[in-house]
Amino acid sequence: MKRTRNDAVKAAVTSYLERRNYPDIDFFNNSSTSRSAEEMAVATIVQYESSRANSILFSCINNDPGHYDVQYTRLVSFIKEINIEKVKNELLGLLTPLLCHMYLEMLRGGHGGAAQMFLKRHSATLPQKDLSYHQPIDGNLPSALYRPNSLEQLFNSLQNGTIDNETPEKDYMNQLLDDIGSVYTLQEVESRPSIAAFRSCKYDIYLSQDALNMLKAYLAKHSHVLLIQVLQTWFHIDINSDSKKNSEDDEEQPEDVNANCEEKLNDKH
Q: Which residues form the TFIID subunit TAF5 NTD2 domain (predicted)?
C-alpha cells in the first residue's frame, strides 16, 4: 500500500520519539488528534473572527500608580515637541479627557493619594480645549446632568454653531476637571451627574490621519499597556474628513509628518 507524504512524516516522527523513549507516543499516533488542512483553516478563521489583535484582556488598575505618571508625562512631552502645529494641536485635545480617565482609573485601583497628586501635578499644565472638535460621543446628553448657565449653555451654543456672550470662559472639559478634582473616592462618582455622564460613554475625538498615524507610532513603540487600555476602553477616535481633504491638497505634508514622527521616535529611549 502506497503511503502518503503525511504518513511518511508521521512514521519518521514516531520512530524518533520511540528512540528517545518519549512517553506519549500513543497520543501522537491517535488519529483523532490529527486535523486536515480544511479543519485547520476553519479553526484559524474562527480564531480571527472571535478575537482581536492587540486587545487588552485584563485590567491593570492595580499596577504601580507611578506608571500612570510616567506614561502620561512621556506622552505630554512627545506631543508638545511635535514640530507640526496642526498635528500637535489635535493631539493636545486628547490630554484633558485622558487625564480625567486616568485619575478615575487610579481611584478605581485604590490609589487615592497618588491620584490626587497626579491630577494636581498635570492639571495646571493643560492647554485650553476647543469643544467643537472634542466632546462626549453621545453629544446630546441630558441637560439636567449639567450646571445651568455653564455646560448646558455651552452645549447649546456648540450645537447651534455659535458661541454667545453668556457662554462661560471655561469649556466643558475644564469644568469637568474641576468636578473630578473634588472627587476622592470612586463611590462619589455616581453622586456627581457630570462625572457619571462622562464615564457612561466613550469620549469621541476627531483626529486627522496624520495625527492618528503619529499617535499610533508612539503607542506602538513606547506606550505602557495601561495607557493603551485607557485609550481603548474610554476613547473613540474618528478621522476628521476635513483634515483628510486638506491633506490631499498638500502633497508635501504627509512626508513632513512621517519625517517628524521618525525623528521624534528615534529621540525617545
A: 63-125, 170-233
Among 12-21, 54-63, 134-143, the range scoring the smallest mean pLDDT is 134-143
pLDDT score recorded for residue 179: 87
Are 169 and 111 in contact by the 8 Å Cβ rule? The answer is: no
Q: CATH classification of 66-267 is 3.40.50.720, yes or no? A: no
Task: Name the packing angle between helices 172-181 and 95-108 (round to 10°).
Answer: 20
Q: How far is CA 201 from CA 31, 109, 137, in A?
A: 50, 20, 7
For 70, list phi and psi in degrees, rounded to 5.
-65, -50
Question: 224 exposed, middle or buried (CB, 10 Å; 0-12, 13-18, 19+)?
Answer: middle
Q: Tell me the β-bridge partners of 205.
A: 134, 237
